[in-house]
Amino acid sequence: MKLYVTDLSPNSRRVLAVMHQLGLAGETEVQKFNLVEGQHRSEDFREINPNMKVPVLVDGDFKLWEANPIMIYMSDRQGAEEFCPSDSATRIEILRWISWEVQHFNRAIGDITWETVAKQFFNMGEPDAEKIKSGQENFRRFAAVLEEHLADRDFILGDKPTVADFAVGSHSALALYPQSQVPLLEFPKVLAWFQRLETLPAWAKTAPQAPAEAAE
After folding, report:
1. pTM metric for this prediction
2. Which helix (H) or strand (E) segment is 192 a member of?
3. What tens digit of pLDDT does each residue of 127-141 get?
4. Residue 62's beta-bridge partner residues?
5. Measured between alpha carbons, how far is 105 from 98 in angstroms, rounded to an integer?
């Protein structure tokens, strides 16, 4: 397999973490692009992913883009039932949470950290206070849902991490970054869960060195 990623990206991090979680590092070629230099905008890469974004997985003739389907594909390929259960009830629960994170939870974190972290790296001007405030309001709304859900469990589906945690928690480094302005202290169970994720071996191996650069 070949995995196209970029450094310091939450979406790339989640698929790389799954690769390590499933023991696939030895059989996966990792191609890292420098997005600032536009390495992902070549015509050759357009043929692999017409969106010209990463991550992308190539397995033989099969080309798959978007992080969450890549994680599920790798899990199913490895028969990782404990990490990504395939029974219909649990799979639907996984799909619910990974849809939720894309539409709500991590969108809110991304809106905040684009202004407070990424703009600085890309020299794109001063943070927009109104956009930060709007992102924080959305974060509070959806973090409250996760806070309640984590009241009696350590991870999204119970007492062990699953693919759902790697998806919902993909922005952990950005959210934990001191200047992020993500109001995590208001949600102690979410904060503890983020910190718990960061201690997982597969997650620790993919920790960004400079979260300010995670913007794609």
Report:
1. 0.92
2. helix 188-198
3. 999 999 999 999 999
4. 59
5. 10
